[in-house]
Amino acid sequence: SLERLAGRFRIVAVTARARFGRRNTRLWLEREGLGFVELYLSPFFNLTEPGRAKYKSIVISALRSRGYDIRYGEGDRPSDMRAYAANGAFPVVVLDGEDERRRQAFERLAARLGLGEDDYAVFVERPGAPAWKAIADFIEARG
Q: Contact 54/47 with Cβ under 8 angstroms?
C-alpha cells in the first residue's frame, strides 16, 4: 500500500526514536520493503508526549520550509496528532485493535486541537488485517 502511495507521494517517517537506533530502524524498513521511506530520527531521547510532539512538529515544519507538501500524517500517539495538526497536515490515527478508551482519548484531543470530525481519520488494525490498505485507499480518494 505504501509502495502504491509512493508513486504519487513522497513517504517520510518522522520518529522521536533516538538517532543511535538509525541502523536498526533502517534495516527494519528495508526488511519490510520500505527502503524508499525517508527517515528522520531525533538527536536525543524523547520520553514524554510533549517532547515527542515538539520534536516531530519541528521536523515537519522544517520539511515544509524546504518545499515538502505535507498533506497527511499517520501515527498511533497523541504526539503524532499534535504535530501534524500544528503543521496543517491531516492526522490519520491508527489504533491497535478496537480500544474505545483510546479512540475517545483521540476524539477529546482532536476537540482540544480544534479539529472537527472531518479533520482527522481513525483506522483500526486487527490481527491479520493491517490498516495500511484502508489508509492508502482513503488518501488516494482524498488526493
A: no
Measured CA to CA, the distance from residue 7 to residue 29 in angstroms comes to 18
C-alpha cell at 26: 533502517
Grid cell for residue 95:
489504533
Cell numbers describing residue 72 = 497527511
pLDDT digits (tens, 9 = 90+) for 57-111: 999 999 999 999 999 999 999 999 999 999 999 999 999 988 899 999 999 999 9
CA atoms within a 13 Å half-sphere pointing along the CA-CB vector of 95: 15
Q: Read off the pTM.
A: 0.89
Q: Is residue 21 a contact partner of residue 41, using CB atoms and an 8 Å limit?
A: yes
Whether the CA torsion 118, 80, 106, 134 is positive or negative: it is: positive
| Whole-angstrom distance, CA of residue 55 vs CA of residue 75 | 14
Q: DSSP letters along 109-124, please?
A: HHHHTT--TTS-EEEE
Task: Please check whether residue 75 is in contact with residue 84, taking contact to mean a CB–CB distance below 8 angstroms.
Answer: yes
